[in-house]
Amino acid sequence: VALGLDCVGHRILPGHRLRLAVSTCYWPMIWPVSEPFVLSLRTGVGRLSLPVRPHCAGDEVQPDFGVAQAAPGASFVALKRRPSVRRVEVDLKTGEMVHTVEGGSFGDAELARLHEIDLDLSYWLKKELRIREEDPLSARASISQHALLCRADWQVRVTCETELETTENAFQFRCQLTAKEDDSLAFQRSWAESIPRTSL
Hints:
With 200 residues, the chain is mostly beta strands. The chain has strands at residues 77-81, 85-90, 96-104, 109-114, 119-132, 135-151, 154-166, 170-181, 184-196.
């Protein structure tokens, strides 16, 4: 198996060691394969090859990049606070594991105000990833996103609900997008797609 580490660089000091971890999946970062299987490793015959960067003149000199430059960010005031959430729950009876992440774009502010342009705005996301032990086809992902822009008597809300699950042969994706101006429906679309699973 060849793994590319072209974008990873680390200086390993003398006496330090590397640990190689091998797994059949990396949930919830990577979607699991469609069926359980046993991974066998024959120790003593495999090898780990790492590229070695040749020493160059000036390697020991730390470059001075100076002070980072960036455009000034907009200052906001929290109007309504809501703590972000990151938790893992396990149902000991069913074996289901649920990863939940909730948060927004303004720290713990569910609703914020930009005084410079007299605008109240909000963006909040809730993501749930579910899977049952020993059943990779039970993997489910759902993401709920809510955005709000308002000023005086004008208000726009956008909501997006997405779900992803799989069968043995395909990913099943569903989405619903809704946009409202004040209390009137401005746009709405629902769609579903089936994406074939392919082997690498």
